[in-house]
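Lecture notes, part 5. Sequence design as translation. It can be helpful to think of inverse folding as translation between two languages: the language of shapes and the language of residues. The source text, in structure tokens, appears below.
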């Protein structure tokens, strides 16, 4: 399977990006500053979120690395919630702010909870029968992929804190969640799907020791993306922490 929902997914991606660009255009039209790099980042993030999988298991894992790590980082750096709050009509803002202040968003964006949702989803995918089931059922594959993207966005937003969030988690919980998620990915990289792991052990590729885990598993790249997420937190530190007014 090489896509997610076919043309419907592509149309949805175009609509989402067009809505973002409309907000940015309105903001700039009234003289406010909105860096163009955020537009480019959001466009790249949307494209990464629907990144098609190449044939085979390796292509599937690469797709989840792009959709679950790179896409969330780019989307969060674009600050879509901040843009929405600055450009939406007053009636929309009045209805949206109580939702952002409510308990469910605060729980979901609390870093340890978001880390469990992010890393736990990959553990369920690769260490249970869900991976094989998603390969047989296209709609289940779409749902799993959407969850991977959403969980990655929640985790990245909870660590970076660039958009307005209701929780008051300090550096300690965010750092602990980051380290914990990286460790979970690293452990998962050493195991991988059971059936695929057994095949690799029986037939190691040239240059790889027998039993050595494949270097393209998500955990092998977790350190690099974790560093990028921490850098993004630094970029948000130059201005006061956004709040929901």
């Amino acid at each position: 399977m090489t896509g997610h929902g076919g043309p419907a997914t592509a149309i949805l991606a175009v609509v989402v990006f067009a809505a973002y660009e409309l907000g940015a255009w309105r903001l700039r039209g009234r003289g406010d500053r909105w860096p163009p790099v955020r537009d480019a980042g959001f466009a790249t993030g949307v494209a990464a979120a629907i990144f098609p999988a190449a044939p085979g298991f390796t292509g599937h894992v690469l797709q989840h690395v792009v959709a679950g790590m790179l896409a969330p980082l780019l989307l969060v750096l674009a600050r879509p919630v901040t843009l929405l709050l600055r450009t939406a009509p007053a009636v929309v803002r009045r209805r949206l702010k109580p939702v952002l202040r409510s308990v469910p968003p605060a729980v979901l964006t609390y870093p340890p909870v978001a880390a469990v949702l992010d890393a736990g989803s990959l553990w369920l995918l690769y260490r249970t029968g869900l991976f094989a089931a998603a390969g047989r059922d296209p709609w289940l594959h779409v749902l799993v992929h959407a969850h991977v993207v959403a969980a990655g966005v929640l985790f990245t937003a909870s660590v970076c804190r660039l958009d307005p969030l209701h929780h008051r988690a300090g550096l300690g919980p965010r750092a602990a969640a980051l380290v914990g998620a990286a460790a979970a990915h690293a452990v998962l990289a050493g195991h991988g799907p059971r059936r695929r792991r057994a095949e690799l052990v029986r037939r190691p590729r040239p240059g790889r020791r027998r039993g050595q885990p494949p270097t393209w598993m998500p955990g092998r790249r977790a350190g690099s993306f974790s560093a990028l997420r921490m850098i993004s937190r630094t970029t948000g530190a130059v201005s006061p922490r956004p709040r929901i007014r």
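The translated text above is only one of many valid answers, since several sequences can fold into similar shapes. The radius of gyration is 19 Å.
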